[in-house]
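JOB MANIFEST
job_type = single_chain_structure
chain_count = 1
residues = 132
[input]
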Amino acid sequence: MIRVPPFFIMSILVLLIGCSRSDEDPSPATATVPEPARSESWRESRMLVGQDTYEAACASCHDRGEENAPLIGNQEEWSGRSDLWTAILSEHANQGYLDMPEKGGHSELSDDNVAAAVEYMLLKTFPEMPRD
């Protein structure tokens, strides 16, 4: 029996939903995250989803430091966030934390897309960090 990864199933569902709404006017409150083209590896695909999610939902604050959001790429601002890194930061991003609203104010995003955006931000901020 062939096992299909959950990420692949979610990608197909997002793609199908996105295609079915082609006549609607996208608004910031319902930002959709385009799925990336097939890439070399699972990690590259995940980082493309993370980048797309970041640009659609996170960049508005993390590129400018709005509401005390740590700037992407600024190691000093991110260094004291958590020793558990991805797990805790993903939980904070999905549930909201301090001034950051749940899922950055984009409740339509999946927990997995938000977690991919967290991984993308950490990769851009700490490129030398080993990855899981």
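[summary]
Residues 41-127 form a domain with the Cytochrome Bc1 Complex; Chain D, domain 2 fold (CATH 1.10.760.10).
Residues 19-28 have pLDDT under 50 and may be disordered.
exit_status = 0
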